[in-house]
Amino acid sequence: MNRVYKTFGALALIVLCWPTVLSAQNAFSGTWKTDPAKHPFGLGAIATYTLSTDGRVHFSNNKSREYDFAIDGKDHPTDRPGSTERWTKTSESSWTRMETIQDKPLREVHLVLSPDGQTLTTTYTWFNPGNRTAQGKTIFSRISGGSGLWGSWKVVNRVEEPDTFYIAFPAPGQLYIYIEPMDYTWAGPMNGTFRPVQCPQVVPGTASAFHLADPRRMDVETKINGKTAFFDKWEVSEDGKTLTRTTWAPGHEDSTSVFILEKQ
User: Fold this and answer.
1) Which residues have C-beta within 8 Å of that of residue 161, sequence separation ≥ 6?
2) Same CATH fold, 46-160 and 2-33+163-263?
3) How many whole angstroms separate alpha carbon 239 and alpha carbon 220?
4) Which of 182, 206, 245, 256 is most solvent-facing, going by the fewest CB within 10 Å?
5) Spatial contact of 166 and 37, defined as CB atoms under 8 Å apart
């Protein structure tokens, strides 16, 4: 008898949740793509480089990341597990930074300072599996500091290749996400269960949990080795044409990044 009650209870739960699941499938399912020219991402972000008395450099994004390194052509660990950066000075006003994860190249960045010292331009290449690469460019404007790399810089322009999100629901209550060109895959239930993120651009031990808050909204929490790294809120517009992804670091709810995608 207990088995019968459990079976009917499970069926009742599925029936009750089915309309919400179907609505979510209708809202989120499909292919979504960014338009960097129309919806630039990351404008206003701050990067600060501080030179220490021992010759090392302290980096901070004034939110959730900070670490020390030296511009000596050697690999130095960052604040992310398994991640390193190797800085090389190529001239009095230019540098190259190679980022790696688990000893594999992640991104090569070239930084060039303008003659008046007020603009820092970075051009970079992301390295992805299958010999695929993605190009990008970010322009920073100086907001503090006197000369060289040292000081705080604000993002005023960013040009990147578009990201494409593929979202599917292979079974009731199950979510599948694939993102190009970063080769990101996540699959699991939409009930807040943490599942590992499969992506060469994230550090090992990264896991995310997706929770369906309502038919047009999913809440996401991402942890690295059990510690919360950031939160996401994914929302589909009423007309179903745009997907807005809002992210923030723990304790920085007032400092969010907004990522807008359009239905294809």
Assistant:
1) 36, 134, 135, 136, 181
2) yes
3) 22
4) 256
5) no
Domain extents for the chain? 2-33+163-263, 46-160
Q: Residue 196: CB partners within 8 Å, gap ≥ 6?
A: 206, 207
Contact 98, 76 (CB under 8 A): no
Token match 């290749």: residue? 161
Residue 211, token pair as written in the block:
């929770």
Q: Is 21 helix (H, G, I), strand (E, B) or coil?
A: helix
Please list the residues that pair with 195 across neighbouring strands. Answer: 208
The CATH class that applies to domain 46-160 reads mainly beta
Q: What is the DSSP letter of 131?
A: G
pTM: 0.75
Spatial separation of the C-alpha atoms in residues 47 and 44, rounded to whole Å: 10
DSSP letters of 148-203? Answer: TT-EEEEEEEEEEPPPEEEEEEEETTEEEEEEETTTEEEEEESBS--EE-B-TTS-
- 124 with 108: CB under 8 angstroms? yes
For 137-160, how does the pLDDT look when each residue is reduced to its tens digit (9 = 90+)?
Answer: 999 999 999 889 999 999 999 988
pLDDT digits (tens, 9 = 90+) for 184-216: 999 999 999 999 999 888 888 999 999 999 999
Residue 60 near residue 66 (C-beta atoms within 8 A)? yes
- The rounded Cα 168 to chain-centroid distance in angstroms is 20
Architecture of domain 2-33+163-263: Beta Barrel (2.40)
Residue with tokens 């993102």: 179
